[in-house]
Design goal:
rod-shaped; 29% strand; seven-stranded mixed sheet; 1 helix; 148 residues; alpha+beta
């Protein structure tokens, strides 16, 4: 009858062992599959939102019809996406977000009036970014620039 105290100790040790085993098996499963997949999805979503915001700011920088233009509009973009630097550049009539991860890279075409004759430039992540619009009422040049 002097073994009654021993059964409680054995029960606690078994419980502790099972919990430790569960945590040991669960941690690699999460960090090996679920967490990286979630981080990639978040990176892709942030890339899309960043490019959409940049495209909207380029469109908003165009002054009303019939006015001479010299405007500079600041655009706030994240310093990194998914832990990596990136760039937004003009290719033809589209803005392209170039990122080391192809899932994050994206392309967007701003809706610009016909009087915008030139769209050029690029932004590097981590630097101040601006949209500069110059020209007269008939012909406008839009340029993505570092805002230093």
């Amino acid at each position: 009858m002097d073994n009654r105290g021993l059964s409680t100790v054995v029960e606690k040790l078994l419980t502790l062992g099972i919990v430790s085993l569960y945590i040991t098996l669960l941690t690699p499963t999460l960090y090996g599959g679920a967490v990286p997949a979630y981080q990639s999805a978040v990176g892709a979503e942030l890339g899309e939102r960043t490019l959409a915001e940049a495209t909207a700011r380029v469109e908003q920088a165009i002054p009303p019809v019939g006015r001479d233009a010299t405007a500079t509009v600041r655009v706030d973009v994240p310093a990194t996406i998914d832990g990596s630097s990136y760039e937004i550049r003009v290719e033809g009539d589209a803005l392209v977000l170039a990122h080391p991860d192809p899932a994050v890279s994206a392309r967007s075409r701003p809706v610009l009036p016909d009087r915008v004759t030139t769209l050029t430039g690029e932004w590097q992540s981590g630097s101040a970014t601006v949209v500069t619009v110059t020209g007269d009422g008939e012909s406008l040049t839009v340029r993505l620039e570092d805002g230093r």
